[in-house]
Amino acid sequence: MKFKSRVKNFIDKNFHDVQNESLRIVLIYFIFGVAWILLSDWILGILVDDEMFSKIQTYKGLIYIVVTSLVIFSLVNNRIAELKKKSTALMLNQKALSGQVKLNDNIVNNSPVIIVRMNAKGLILNMNDFGCQLLGYKRKEMINKNWIDLLVMREKEENVKKIFEIILEKGSIKNVEEQIMKKDGEILDTRWFGVMDRYGENDSILAVGVDITEERKLQDNLEKMVFIDQLTGLPNRVYLEKTLTELIDSDQQFSIALLNIDNFKHVNNSVSYSVGDELLITIAKALESYVEGDDFIVRFSGDEFVYVYMNDINRERLAEKVKILNNKFDRIWPIDNYEFYTTVSIGVSRYPLDGDRYSTILRNANITMEQVKKAGKNSYLFYEEEFKWRNLDNILLAKKMQRAIDEETFELYYQPMIDIKTGKIDALEGLLRWPDEEKGFISPGRFIPLSEETGQIYAIEKYVFKKALEQRKKFNDNGLSDINISINLSNKTLMNKIMFNELVDLIASFQEEFSKIIIEVTETALISDIETAIDRLSILKALGFKIALDDFGTGYSSLTYLRDLPIDIVKLDQSFIEKILFSHKDQLIIKTLTDLSHGLNYKVTVEGIETNEQFEHVKALNCDTAQGYLISRPMPLIEVHEMIESNYVFKQK
User: Fold this and answer.
1) How far apart are the first and last CA of the chain?
2) How many Å is the maximal CA-CA distance in the chain?
3) Residue 424 and which of 11, 91, 107, 511 are 20 to 30 A apart at CA?
4) How far is Cα 224 from Cα 240, in angstroms, rounded to an integer?
5) CA 28, CA 319: separation in Å to the nearest integer?
6) Alpha-carbon torsion 412, 418, 419, 422, what sign?
7) Can you list the alpha helix ranges (DSSP code H) found in 111-212?
8) Three-class SS of residue 434?
9) pLDDT digits 0-9 by tens, 608-638
10) In this structure, are residues 333 and 230 in contact, taking their beta carbons and an 8 Å threshold?
C-alpha cells in the first residue's frame, strides 16, 4: 500500500512538472518569436547597409528556425535528464520497498505470536501463518469468520464482546488475558494487545496475541507451591492469611476453628514419621469430606488444621458444627498395619467479634485451643477475653520468673516430717517459695506449672537441688547427720535426658554422701514412660539417694510400680487422709498399702495431716512418718534451725 502511494505521488508530481515545463517552453518560444519580429529588422538596420540588409532578409527566417530549435532542444534535453535521474531513484526505492515488504511478510508470518486483522464487527480479514498453525486452522477456514463464533467459548462470549467495545471506544487495549479454543478443542491462555487502524478505506482492528499457556501452567504450579501444602494437598497457612485478610478487608464475617491433634507426637516417636505423614494425609482427606458450602479447610502446621466457617459467627449454630467436627475425630484410624486412636483440641474465634486483624483472630484461636489442652484435651472452647489476659499474665509472670532465676531470689522453705512413733523430726521437705515485692509470695501452684510449660523448671530445679545439697552439707558440719532432706524432682527433668544428665553432674560436683537425701517423684510423672523412669531413678539410687513415690493414689496406682520401681518410701496422697475418719474403705486401703509397702521393705509417709483424729488413725494403721499442717507449716531455714535446736518433739494438741 505504501509503495503504490509513493508511485502515485511521484507520477502526480512529475505530471504537473511536465505541464509546467511545456508552458515554459511555449512562453519562451512566444517571447523569442515576438522579440525576433519586432527587433530583428531594427537591429539589422543599425548594424548593416541597405544592400547587406536585403541579403540578410533572405536568411532571417532560416536563422529563426535554427535558433528556436536549439533552444527547444536544450530545454527538453535538460528535462529528460532530470526525469531519468528521478526514474532511477524511483526504481531503487521500488526495489528497497519490495524487499522491505517481503521482510515484513516474513516477520509477520513467522513471528511466534498471533497477528490478526478484523473488521469492526469481528470478522477475520487476515491472520499470520503462525496464528493459523497454532489454532489448527487453514487461513481460508478463518477468513470472513466471526472471531467470537469461531474461537471463543460460550461462557466467555460476553467478556470478549466487552473487549471489542473497549477497542472501538478507546482505540486500543493492552495486556488483556483471555482464553481461546483451538480447532481441536484445546484451550489456550492468551495475552492480547490491539489497536484500531483508521488509515485504510475501512476501519479495522489489528491485534497481537501471545500464547501464555505454559506461563500460566508455571504460574499455577508456583501458586500451588506457595498456597498448597505439599503433603496433604490442602491450602496452607499462606493461603489462609491471604484469604482471611481479603475477607477482613471486605468486612465479611467468618469464624475459624483451630484443630490440634492430641498427642500426635507419640505417633512419630513410637512408629515413624512416614506413618505419621500417612495419618495426616488420611485425616486431611476426612476433613475435606466434612466441608460444607463455601467453607474450607487449611493445614496450618505439623499437626494443626484450620476450618473456616464462611459468613457464620452465630455461637449456638457454630457450637453444633464444631461439636460434630470434634466427635468425628474421636475414632480409630487404620494406617498400614497400625491403628491409631485420635482426639482433637479445638479453639474457635470469630471475626469481627474476637479481633479485627488476621493475626489477632488466629492468636485468639490458638490461645483458646491451648486452654482446651490444659483442661484435658478432646474438646472445644470459644474464645473469651479472659483467655487473652490469662495468657498475658503468663507471659509477664514468665519474664518475672526468669529474673528471679537469674538473681536467685527464690527461697527454700522446709516442712518437717516426723517419726509417728517418737514424734521427732525425721526429714525436711524442701519447698520452693517465691517472694515478690508487688504480690508477696507467689503460689507454687501458679508458677511451677508455668515453669514446666516454658522450660524454666530445669533452671529452677537445679537451684533447688543446689540449695538443698548445700544445706545438707551444713547439717553434716553441724552434727545433724540424722535429718533427711527431701527434694521434689519433676517429670520434665526426669524424662529429659540432657537435663537429667546435667542434674547428675551438678550432684556429682558436691562429692558428698547422699543417703540422707530423699528424691520425690510423683506417680503421675512415671506413667508416660515407666521404663525410662526406672532407668533414671536407678541411676539416682546408685548414687546413694533414697527414692520416694509421692502422691501415691492420685494416678493409676498400679501395684506394678511398687514392685518394679527402685523406691524406698511410699507417700500416700492426702486425699486418703481427708476421708479416713468417715470412710472404712479408705481406712482399709491405707492399711493394705501400708502392710504391702512394709512387706516390700518400704517406709510409708502420710501427707496432709491436719487434725489429731487423722494423726491417731494413721498411727493406728502403723504408718511410719507423717507430714501436714497439724505438725508444722513450711518454714524458712532460720525457723527450722530454731526447731531443731529446741529438740522438737511433736505432741498432739
Assistant:
1) 125
2) 190
3) 511
4) 13
5) 113
6) positive
7) 129-135, 139-142, 147-151, 157-170
8) strand
9) 999 999 899 889 889 999 999 999 999 998 9
10) no
User: Mind listing the domains of the chain with CATH numbers?
Assistant: 2-109 (no CATH), 112-216 (3.30.450.20), 228-383 (3.30.70.270), 395-645 (3.20.20.450)
Say what the pLDDT of residue 110 is: 63
**Rounded to an integer, what distance in angstroms lies between the CA atom of residue 574 and that of residue 582?**
14
DSSP 56-103: HHHHHHHHHHHHHHHHHHHHHHHHHHHHHHHHHHHHHHHHHHHHHHHH
pTM for the complete prediction?
Answer: 0.56
Which phi and psi (to 5°) does residue 418 adopt? Answer: -105, 155
Evaluate whether 484 touches 414 at the Cβ level (below 8 Å): no
- Whole-Å CA distances, 528 to 85, 262, 269, 319, 533: 107, 15, 13, 33, 9
Question: Residues near 173 by Cβ (< 8 Å), separated by ≥ 6?
Answer: 163, 166, 167, 192, 193, 194
Tell me the torsion sign for CA atoms 536, 537, 538, 544.
Answer: positive
Task: State pLDDT tens for residues 82-112.
Answer: 767 777 766 766 665 565 555 455 555 667 8
User: How many of the other CB atoms lie within 10 Å of CB of 226?
Assistant: 11
In the three-class reduction of DSSP (H, G, I as helix; E, B as strand; rest coil), residue 320 is classed as: helix
- CA torsion, points 603, 607, 610, 615, in degrees to nearest 10? -20
Whole-number Cα distances in Å, 393 to 114, 387, 399: 66, 10, 10
427-447 as b/e: b if 16+ CB within 10 A: bbbbbbebeeeeeeebebeeb
Cell 527464690 -> residue = 410
**Residues 373, 375, 381, CA angle at the centre, nearest 5°?**
75
CA–CA gap between residue 64 and residue 44 (Å, rounded)? 14
Burial class (CB in 10 A: 0-12, 13-18, 19+), 294: exposed
Residue type, 422: T
Cell of residue 629, nine digits: 499442717
Region for 82 from its dihedrals, namely left if φ exceeds 0, alpha if ψ lies in -120 to 50, beta otherwise = alpha
What is the CA 254 to chain-centroid distance, rounded?
19
Closest alpha carbon to 441 in 415, 413, 463, 472: 413
Single-letter amino acid code for the residue at 476: N
Q: List the beta bridge partners of residue 487.
A: 519
Q: Which positions ≥6 away from 311 have C-beta within 8 Å?
A: 252, 253, 254, 294
273-290 vs 315-329: helix crossing angle, rounded to 10: 140
- What residues are paired with 424 via a beta bridge? 649
Query: What is the rounded CA–CA span in Å between residue 505 and residue 403?
Result: 24
How far is the C-alpha of 176 from the C-alpha of 194, rounded, in Å? 9
